[in-house]
């Protein structure tokens, strides 16, 4: 059996965002391949620019905001047109805006729930059956949420992130005894791609990637919320069961 055949692959949904870039970086550093879902070739080029190389990355174009976008990717995997994956990382996020509640338009509200909640839900719904059917004992499914769902200083992301909390708890319960380690990363500070992070004096995506590397490497982390409250949490996992 070739090395390519046995090497693990991480499907990254939201791969070109700040957190997605961190996940891709982590997967590659942990000697795994990446199947990156991107909008178009321009998005693929953007990811390569942030990572520094396309080695180990397979790109697939899909609209993850559609209820059939991620399913189309899984269909291609099952048809042998794309590499099989054993892990999923989802980090589709919307606007980080300070728009006050009375000024949020219906369009803005619905757009952000589509981006931040529905897209992550679609990602879960349309990949979990595949992972369950494969019965690979090392499979993981990881999502990144944020503390805005609790602190609510920014109303739009607060509402959409807060809606993810019961979803992640339900998924953690449903996979407690399956072959899939489902976990939520709860992030409490700003992370940006490395070039932007230096300019804005915030945490680099490459540094935040350490958290995902540790989750992948630790089979004891299951059905848990991994808290990243400060930079010290980038070096040692802080986690507890979600129920």
UniProtKB/TrEMBL annotation:
Keyword hit for Aminoacyl-tRNA synthetase: no
The keyword Cell membrane is annotated on this UniProt entry: no
One function term, GO molecular function aspect: oxidoreductase activity
Residues that span the membrane, as ranges: 6-28
Lineage: superkingdom: Eukaryota
Pfam families per the UniProt record, alphabetical: adh_short
Keywords associated with the record: Membrane, Oxidoreductase, Transmembrane, Transmembrane helix
Gene3D superfamilies the UniProt entry points to: NAD(P)-binding Rossmann-like Domain (3.40.50.720)
Similarity remark: Belongs to the short-chain dehydrogenases/reductases (SDR) family.
Identification of the protein by name: NmrA-like domain-containing protein
Organism listed in the record: Penicillium freii
């Amino acid at each position: 059996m070739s090395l390519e055949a046995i090497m693990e692959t991480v499907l990254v949904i939201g791969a070109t965002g700040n957190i997605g870039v961190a996940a891709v970086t982590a997967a590659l550093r942990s000697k795994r391949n990446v199947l990156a879902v991107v909008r178009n070739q321009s998005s693929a080029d953007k990811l390569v620019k942030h990572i520094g190389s396309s080695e180990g990355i397979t790109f697939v174009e899909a609209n993850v905001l559609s209820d059939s976008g991620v399913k189309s990717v899984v269909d291609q995997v099952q048809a042998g047109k794309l590499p099989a994956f054993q892990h999923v990382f989802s980090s589709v996020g919307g606007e980080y805006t300070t728009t006050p509640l009375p000024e949020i338009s219906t369009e803005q509200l619905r757009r952000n729930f589509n981006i931040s909640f529905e897209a992550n839900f679609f990602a879960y719904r349309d990949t979990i059956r595949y992972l369950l059917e494969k019965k690979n004992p090392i499979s993981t499914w990881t999502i990144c949420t944020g503390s805005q769902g609790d602190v609510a200083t920014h109303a739009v992301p607060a509402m959409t992130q807060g809606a993810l909390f019961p979803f992640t708890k339900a998924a953690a319960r449903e996979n407690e005894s399956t072959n899939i380690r489902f976990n939520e990363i709860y992030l409490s500070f700003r992370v940006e791609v490395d070039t932007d992070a230096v300019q804005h004096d915030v945490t680099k995506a490459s540094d935040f990637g350490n958290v995902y590397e540790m989750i992948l490497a630790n089979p004891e982390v299951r059905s848990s919320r991994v808290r990243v409250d400060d930079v010290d949490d980038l070096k040692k996992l802080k986690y507890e069961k979600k129920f």
